[in-house]
Amino acid sequence: MEEVILPGILLTILIGIAYLTGRVADGVHDRALKRDESLLPRQVLDSGSNIPGDIKLHDTAMVTGKVVIAEDRFRNLLARLRIFVGGRLSAHEASITRAKREAMLRLRTNAKGASHIIGIRFDSAQLSRGMIEMIVSGTALYTDHRPKGGFPSALPDDGVNISHRNLLVEFLSASTAFLLICWGIYAASGLLVEWASHEISVEDEVAIWSQLEPELINHHRTADDRSLAENYLVDLINSIPKAALGPAAAYDFDVVIVPDPTPNAAALPGGLILVHAGMIDLVESENELLSILGHEIGHYNGRDHLEGLGREVVGVALSAMMFQTDAVLTTWIAGWPKLLTDLDYSRSQELDA
């Protein structure tokens, strides 16, 4: 239980820190924008390209404003949840609008002497590490006409294009939907994995896994390839009557002693049993060794090794879907041999074995 609770608490703390720091930064930026916008002179802002006919034009200039949007971890997490569960992707709407306002502020600062700015266009460019550059350009018109009105914070506004729903409420809604979907997928896939693990023949299992990691799963080892202790353990298994082995009698078992002081043993696909040196050091009789080996053989009869691996595959697939990246799959594939040795079985599986 601690393996679930402690990471959960740590994850909650990290999400909370990301939320608080992001909202503090948002508030500071919003107040700075309002202050700086209020100091700008009145200007007529227009996305059209027509020059007003009632002005006397002295000069024109191309002006631009640029700003880089930094990555907001909390909004990114919320966006990924929404991509997974569906719904309005509103996490970055307020950030994008503030970025447009900041870019407009810089554009207008570059054209302080202009009475009009026309042909306003927004563009963006993807930068590295989740950053985006917002660019706004336009044509500044320098005239003898200073507008009395104007739009001190116009283009863009914060109207219907922005969701005003609280980010925490949005996060709780999206994360609840995500957990329900994942639970449903995991439960349904668990039934499918259980069915599939009993449908795969021993021959197919051996053929598949011997191709994945020949150095780890090698069913062509002879007595000369094994150590004296490994041959002894294999002989112990072979001394068990076939009838007592049950369905596991179809396996051609091999045993590898792992130089690890942790008292543990593992049943890998294809009939390969790993026994840690720390486990052997604790054994005081041949009967205890038979009990350990028999327990691992029991996992083969229950197909627990395939069920556990299948559930791990489902978990990795869900993670890859959530984070929209192949890196999760690549990392898992690179480290799957260690994962096999670390597979945990449920209490009922251990009791059945």
UniProtKB/TrEMBL annotation:
One GO location term (cellular component): membrane
Residues annotated as transmembrane: 6-25, 171-193
Domain Peptidase M48: 239-322
Coiled coil location: none
Cofactor note: Binds 1 zinc ion per subunit.
Cofactor(s) required, per the database record: Zn(2+)
UniProt lineage: Bacteria, Pseudomonadati, Pseudomonadota, Alphaproteobacteria, Rhodospirillales
GO molecular function: metal ion binding; metalloendopeptidase activity
Keywords annotated in UniProt: Hydrolase, Membrane, Metal-binding, Metalloprotease, Protease, Transmembrane, Transmembrane helix, Zinc
Keyword DNA damage: no
The protein's name in its UniProt record: Peptidase M48
